[in-house]
């Protein structure tokens, strides 16, 4: 009943064909996957999706924490740049106008 999706193969637990991992083995598993270019070369989300396809019990938060501690990931991570909104300057007044359109039909509010 309750554990019908849980199976055992080669002394490992599987939940719906995903290997169930213990919390103390997560970092070792992530290290092995991270060192394999097949899993780690396509970015953060792709790496997590590959982990999710093979293992149960590894959260996205845990994967992100692991990645943040990897030197190679830190070096290649994109730097977030603050977007600068430049003001619109005109030489004369009333050169640029702006208007908002509001639909005020009775059945809308």
Structure description:
The chain has 109 residues and is α+β, with helices and mostly antiparallel strands. Helices cover 37% and strands 12% of the residues. It is built from five helices and four strands, in the order E-E-E-H-H-H-E-H-H. It has helices at residues 26-35, 37-40, 44-54, 60-68, 71-76; strands spanning 6-9, 12-15, 18-20, 55-56. Strands 1-2-3-4 form a four-stranded mixed β-sheet. Strand 1 and strand 2 form a beta hairpin. The longest helix is centred in the middle third of the chain and has 11 residues, at 44-54. The radius of gyration is 25 Å and the shape is elongated. It starts with 5 loop residues before the first strand and ends in a 33-residue tail after the last helix. The mean pLDDT is 84.
